[in-house]
Amino acid sequence: MESIKWGVLGYARIARLFVIPAIQRSTNSEFYAIASRDKEKLEKCQADFGCKKTYSSYDELLDDPEVQAVYIPLPNSLHKEWTIKAARKGKHILCEKPMALNAAECLEMVEESKKNNVVLMEAFMYRYTDRIRKVREIIDSGVIGDVKYINSTFRFFLNRENDVRMVQELGGGSLYDVGCYPLNFVGMVTGSVPVSVSAEFVKQDGVDVIFSALLRYGNGTIASINCGFNAFGKQFSEIIGTKGIVEVPLTFSNDAGFITVISHEGKREVEVLESDRYQLEIEDFSDAVLHNRKPLFSLDETVRNMRILDDLMEKVRACK
């Protein structure tokens, strides 16, 4: 079977713990190269994963003709720069969420990928889980009727010192880091843009550490999203329709579990299987490159959600 040779820009925690191992597990991908300005990180990566090439600069990796696709786990403020540089070098790009700091940046990245005929995708790995597949099947079945209300939460307690997620200049804040997941989930369910948004939040060191928003849609649906760094962790979503409710514990997780469906006919549990979300994401992306097709998660959806994120972040930035 053909395989894609991957390069990774930066030895970030998510790359080290999740994405590089997923590349190695996948059936159509090879972890070929790593770039980092930190020599110790390069040596550690080589020892742990045995990649064929190590580079002390991102540009050197992008100049390697053997690298076909790159994964970008850099701080949010660097996504646009290195996605565009990678596209101009003819590399396909899987970029960590959020794709950019705003929709204007995102549109530049999309345009550059199209101009250079490369695949670009935002890395929302949770969309590859059995949990999300079952949620979509339940909604599409019509069992809960027309969706009227959505609530989605993703928060965790951030206790690591000097974390980039607390640095404003690097695109920190809970809305960018974890709030984009509930926003993405709501966008998946509604498939549209809200006609109005409102928000409440608390800032610390220039970034939001807790954030809640209400989104109202033209068809009368209202969605609530919640995220944060300063309280006990929770992932949970509910979708309420005219005929029933879907409750989705651990919405963004790959763990096995159950989705609860409640209607006039009673309450039933829908089993969810454990999913290797990162491996499935890598395999779908690599397959899209190999067979010249679009990956599961579309750029149209990314741009739509970035525009909503702009409206919400404008409120954060306006608050000194």
Question: How would you name the CATH homologous superfamily of the largest domain?
Answer: Dihydrodipicolinate Reductase, domain 2
- Strand order of the biggest β-sheet: 8-9-10-7-11-12-13-14
CATH topology tier name of the largest domain: Dihydrodipicolinate Reductase, domain 2
- Main sheet characteristics: 8 strands, mixed
**Which stretches are low in confidence, meaning pLDDT under 50 for 5 or more residues running?**
none
Category from helices, strands and their pairing:
alpha/beta
What is the CA-atom radius of gyration, in angstroms?
A: 20 Å
Helical amount: 25-40%
The whole-number mean of residue pLDDT values reads: 96
CA-based shape = globular
| CATH class categorisation of the largest domain | Alpha Beta
Could you characterize what this model shows?
The strands form 2 sheets. This protein has an 8-stranded mixed sheet, covered by helices on one side. With 320 residues, the chain is an alpha/beta fold. The mean pLDDT is 96. The protein folds into 2 domains: 4-126 and 278-294, NAD(P)-binding Rossmann-like Domain (Rossmann fold); 130-274, Dihydrodipicolinate Reductase, domain 2, CATH 3.30.360.10. The longest helix has 20 residues, at 299-318. It has helices at 13-25, 39-49, 58-62, 79-88, 103-115, 130-141, 174-190, 277-290, 299-318, and strands spanning 4-9, 29-35, 53-55, 69-72, 92-96, 120-123, 147-155, 196-204, 207-216, 222-228, 234-241, 244-249, 257-263, 266-272.
